[in-house]
Amino acid sequence: MHGVVPALPEGVRGAIVDLVEAAAHYGDWADVPGLVADYTVALGADEPRSPGEPA
Fold first, then answer.
1. Would you tell me which of 19, 37, 38, 53 could form a disulfide with 49, CB atoms 3.0–4.6 Å apart?
2. What's the pLDDT score for residue 4?
3. What mean pLDDT, rounded, does the chain reach?
4. Which pLDDT score is estimated for 1?
5. Is the Cα torsion angle 24, 28, 33, 35 positive or negative in sign?
6. Distance (Å) of CA 20 to CA 8, 9, 12, 44, 53
7. Which of 8, 1, 3, 2 is nearest to 44 (CA)?
8. In Å, what is the CA distance from 13 to each residue of 19, 31, 48?
9. Cα(46)–Cα(6) distance, rounded to whole angstroms?
């Protein structure tokens, strides 16, 4: 989708991935579905911006 950015910035998405990896590594499987849901929301399209509006 042109001109649409993810709802949350790269740093936040990366932190969620780190948490998923840690949960899987330590066997905290109950945490994984919620973290994956958070990541899905983080990748969702942010509200469209008007041309010239700062990001």
1. 53
2. 72
3. 86
4. 55
5. negative
6. 17, 17, 13, 18, 34
7. 8
8. 10, 16, 19
9. 5
